[in-house]
């Protein structure tokens, strides 16, 4: 299989995946008791509530609603949010960029911390390496909600970083960029720490495994220093399994951002989804589900393509 | 006295009266002072408050969510307003009014020289336009039902630019208080939307803020979705303090959108915000007190909350048609026994950490006009409770701790409550323990809010423990709760005819109470309503929390009320010391 064909197959799979996820999200959101008219039920007469349900199209059979939504989807119309009274596509578009920024920054930080640390702990057995391993395991056992609250608490106590939000005001250009950078550390660290710990663990195992390979011994026998052997031979060979888990990490990023965005008031998709779920805004929930699935599909495809580019055996395995 | 002397005397009197009016600032055409303010309040500065959610609309006529309401308090005006600290009606855009002898017609005089925030003159035509927009079916206004009396709308006319005549379709006790619900919107900005039947799409969150014109102390200058709303001083705002200083004191207000309540408190602690949208939770008191001791923030008690948590059984006969438990529940004695079994003092101490007062009915001591200290009470008396249950044939006939009737049906119920609401979840556990002492078992099931409401609407529940927020302190404006036909008659909603004689009695009393123009008679009738309610206990109340607010130490001149938003309702008189919060 060529790389181009591989990419096309993954892209087609991503579209189907996004459609299935969005449809399931819609279905589940619709099956949960209550709807967009429930929130105001205590201040409405039954007739007013019925009129509101009819206006929102909630009185139609589920299949009719789904069909209508699919028709819209073909035109990139994700419906109208009953909560914000705006097109879902506009709302999702505004927030998806913010989530993408947060996720990308977290992925970069996790990679910059986790991979070098894993390389170190995989190749060494000293006290420092043991301490790093222990820290990774501790962080891995911490859910994003807890890490986010802890970081927000530290930020509040020390005043080192803003406790929440994405900006401090309406700014433009460089000022906006610097302001966003100031607000990034808390949510990015909350998201990145568990990912960094995961990468450290995977990289350490892969590194330890690579160091036991005959080509590493041969390099040492040829007189290469330990450091050079690790850097030039063992580490590149250990990267394949690390790249392999990036697809999974992208998924973890999006599920983690759901909680982190709420705790740190980051205006992203996670918060939008939360608002949609609370107010039973099914079209908004389905739109957020679709956006999340598309992001996940793109993320995993990119990770797999990179993996395949670096390790052509992956294409070979698919051919067989 | 000759003619010249008389003329001189009249001139002196006229000049003297004019000077007096001038001194009071009540010269016609000049917005005058309304209430005393602390003299040395400096103008300037920006106050940063939090909002837990985003506005669904900038148009209060079509949206009633908390964020839209908060935005409206800052940007729009009313003819009169209910002061949330005193709970009394006070003049606002209308400076005075008279009432016809039959109590049906109110003639309001608008303040002279008022302007919308864009400089357009404010006239009675705007009021007539607003009421027309509210009652236009195409507008689907959420204010319409709140401005009707028994389903009939108010009629508003404008004989001249400064006079508005409001005619009620029938006598209505709260009278002009009803107009606190009426947010006046600008005719020159919204008449095209009303004419085309598209008011529900006007002033959405995508509308440029400059289009959102109002009579409030501030104007919206920007909305950053998911982040914040920014307001600046309305240059045409009409109000002055008693030193003649124009209000508002603040240059601007920022609402930071912070959906999580824990994060909200941490932001207050870090100085990123000056105040939170609503009161502290009981579990936050200790932290806030500690921060107050360190000088980080200031705590203030607004009073006793208006809406105590409520516990009620499903009293729809159809639900229990094939269940023997329905027979006990239909008996007043069963619900009275439950009420006797709850130690309200201990409940207040456990659930609200002592920051609550025991209550025995839906009207808490926080409701200054309508609370009745003489309401019959159900003392904590387990022996009496057991005797009442025994009288219903409920006794423990086997080895387990629960009561049974003669057929062996156990006194066990499932109670639904809101998931994630800590005081409700703690309260439900306290109730479970209290009722276990008399042999009644409660299985507590926390549900997400929408799911619980849906179960309640469908009538599929044994019992519910939740909170119900009243729209006003006046009971005549809460008839949805009291009347058997009401959508807020939570134990048996929207009945075509009263299911029980006592509900029919309450209906009759409330109808008379709402129609009476005699304040003393209204009080007497409502006490009768409360007496009947207390005797038949369709819903049980245990404690009303004291409302504690936390704000940064730079906030000046707060006038807290117990209703949300407790501080921002009087945003024009709020002030801050110069240092801005660090964001």
CA-to-CA gap between the ends of chain A?
A: 9 Å
Rounded radius of gyration of chain A (Å): 24 Å
Which oligomeric state applies? Answer: heterodimer
Structural class of chain A: mainly alpha
- The fraction of residues in strands of chain B falls at 15-25%
* Average pLDDT number of chain A: 85
Tally of helical runs of chain B: 15
Number of strands of chain B: 24
End-to-end C-alpha gap of chain B: 73 Å
Q: What structural class do helix, strand and pairing data of chain B support?
A: alpha+beta
Mind summarizing the main beta sheet of chain A? none
Q: Figure out the total of helices of chain A.
A: 14
Stretches with pLDDT under 50, minimum 5 residues of chain A: none
Q: Overall mean pLDDT score of chain B? A: 90
State the shape of chain B: globular
Main beta-sheet strand count, sense and barrel state of chain B: 5 strands, mixed
- Indicate the proportion of strand residues of chain A: under 5%
Helical content of chain A (DSSP H or I, runs of 4+): over 70%
Outline the structure in words.
The complex is a heterodimer of chains A (320) and B (583). Chain A is mainly alpha-helical and 320 residues long. Chain A is built from 14 helices and no strands. In chain A, 42% of the residues are buried. By secondary structure, chain B is an alpha+beta fold. Helices cover 29% and strands 19% of the residues of chain B. Chain B has a 5-stranded mixed sheet with strand order 19-18-20-16-21. In chain B, strands 1-14-13-12 form a 4-stranded mixed sheet, covered by helices on one side. In chain B, helix 3 runs parallel beside helix 4 (187-195) and helix 14 (501-515) packs antiparallel against helix 15 (519-536). Residues 12-38 of chain B have low confidence and may be disordered.
């Amino acid at each position: 299989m060529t790389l181009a064909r591989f990419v096309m197959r993954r892209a087609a799979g991503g579209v189907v995946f996004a459609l299935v996820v969005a449809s399931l999200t819609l279905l589940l959101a619709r099956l949960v008791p209550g709807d967009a008219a429930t929130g105001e039920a205590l201040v409405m007469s039954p007739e007013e509530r019925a009129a509101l349900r009819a206006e929102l199209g909630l009185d139609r059979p589920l299949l009719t609603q789904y069909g209508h939504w699919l028709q819209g989807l073909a035109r990139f119309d994700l419906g109208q949010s009953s909560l914000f009274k705006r097109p879902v596509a506009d709302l999702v578009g505004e927030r998806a960029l913010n989530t993408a920024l947060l996720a990308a920054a977290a992925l970069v930080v996790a990679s910059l911390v986790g991979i070098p640390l894993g390389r170190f702990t995989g190749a060494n057995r000293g006290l420092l390496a043991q301490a790093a391993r222990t820290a990774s395991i501790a962080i891995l056992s911490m859910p994003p909600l807890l890490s986010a609250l802890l970081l927000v608490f530290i930020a509040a106590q020390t005043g080192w970083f803003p406790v929440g939000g994405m900006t401090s005001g309406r700014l433009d250009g460089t000022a906006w960029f610097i302001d966003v950078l100031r607000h990034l550390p808390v949510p990015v660290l909350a998201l990145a720490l568990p990912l960094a710990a995961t990468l450290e663990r995977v990289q350490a195992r892969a590194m330890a495994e690579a160091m036991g390979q005959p080509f590493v011994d041969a390099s040492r026998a040829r007189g290469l220093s330990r450091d050079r052997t690790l850097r030039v031979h063992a580490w590149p060979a250990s990267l394949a399994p690390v790249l392999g888990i990036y697809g999974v990490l992208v998924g973890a990023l999006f599920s983690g951002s759901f909680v982190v965005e709420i705790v740190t008031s980051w205006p992203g998709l996670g918060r939008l989804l939360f608002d949609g779920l609370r107010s039973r805004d099914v079209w908004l929930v389905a739109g957020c589900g679709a956006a999340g699935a598309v992001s996940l599909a793109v993320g995993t495809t990119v990770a797999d393509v990179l993996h395949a580019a670096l390790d052509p055996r992956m294409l070979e395995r698919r051919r067989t | 006295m000759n003619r010249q002397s008389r003329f001189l005397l009249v001139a002196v009197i006229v000049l003297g009266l004019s000077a007096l009016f001038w001194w009071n600032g009540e010269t016609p055409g000049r917005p005058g002072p309304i209430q005393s303010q602390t003299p040395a309040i400096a103008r300037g500065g920006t106050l940063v408050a939090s909002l837990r959610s985003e506005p669904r609309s900038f148009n209060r006529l079509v949206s009633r969510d908390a964020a839209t309401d908060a935005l409206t308090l800052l940007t729009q005006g009313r003819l009169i307003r209910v002061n949330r600290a005193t709970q009394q009606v006070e003049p606002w855009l209308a400076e005075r009014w008279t009432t016809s002898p039959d109590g049906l017609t109110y003639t309001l005089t608008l303040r002279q020289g008022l302007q919308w925030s864009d400089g357009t003159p404010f006239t009675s035509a705007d009021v007539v336009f607003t009421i027309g927009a509210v009652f236009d079916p195409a507008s689907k206004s959420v204010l319409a039902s709140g401005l009707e009396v028994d389903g009939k709308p108010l009629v508003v006319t404008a004989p001249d630019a400064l006079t508005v005549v409001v005619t009620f379709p029938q006598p209505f006790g709260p009278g002009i208080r009803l107009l606190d619900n009426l947010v006046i919107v600008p005719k020159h900005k919204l008449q095209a939307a009303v004419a085309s039947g598209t008011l529900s799409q006007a002033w959405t969150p995508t509308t440029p803020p400059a289009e959102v014109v109002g009579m409030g102390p501030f104007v919206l200058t920007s909305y950053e979705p998911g982040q914040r709303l920014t307001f600046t001083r309305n240059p045409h705002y009409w109000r002055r303090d008693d030193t003649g200083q124009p209000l508002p004191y603040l240059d601007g207000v920022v609402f930071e959108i912070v959906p999580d309540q824990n994060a909200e408190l941490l932001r207050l602690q870090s100085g990123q915000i000056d105040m939170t949208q609503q009161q502290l939770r009981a579990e936050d008191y200790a932290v806030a007190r500690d921060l107050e001791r360190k000088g980080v923030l200031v705590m203030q008690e607004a009073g006793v909350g208006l809406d105590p948590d409520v516990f009620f059984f499903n009293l729809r006969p159809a639900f229990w048609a094939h269940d023997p438990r329905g027979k006990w529940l239909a008996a007043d004695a069963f619900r009275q026994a439950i009420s006797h079994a709850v130690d309200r003092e201990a409940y207040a101490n456990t659930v609200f950490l002592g920051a609550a007062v025991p209550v025995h009915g839906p009207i808490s001591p926080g409701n200054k006009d309508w609370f009745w200290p003489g309401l019959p009470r159900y003392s904590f008396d387990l022996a009496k409770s057991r005797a009442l249950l025994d009288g219903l044939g409920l006794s423990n006939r086997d080895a387990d701790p629960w009561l049974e009737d003669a057929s062996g049906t156990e006194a066990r119920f499932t109670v639904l409550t809101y998931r994630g609401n800590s005081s409700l979840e703690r309260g439900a556990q306290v109730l479970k323990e209290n009722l276990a002492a008399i042999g009644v078992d409660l299985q507590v099931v926390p549900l997400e809010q929408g799911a619980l409401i849906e179960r309640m609407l469908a009538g599929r529940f044994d019992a519910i423990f939740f909170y119900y927020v009243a729209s006003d302190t006046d009971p005549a404006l809460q008839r949805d709760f009291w009347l058997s036909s009401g959508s807020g008659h939570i134990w048996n909603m929207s009945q075509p005819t009263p299911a029980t004689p006592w509900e029919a009695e309450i209906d009759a009393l409330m109808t008379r109470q709402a129609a009476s123009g005699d304040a003393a008679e209204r009080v007497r009738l409502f006490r009768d309503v409360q007496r009947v309610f207390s005797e038949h206990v369709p819903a049980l109340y245990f404690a009303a929390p004291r409302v504690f607010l936390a704000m940064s130490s730079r906030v000046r001149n707060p006038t807290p009320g117990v209703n949300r938003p407790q501080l921002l309702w009087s945003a024009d008189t709020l002030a801050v010391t110069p240092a801005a919060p660090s964001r």
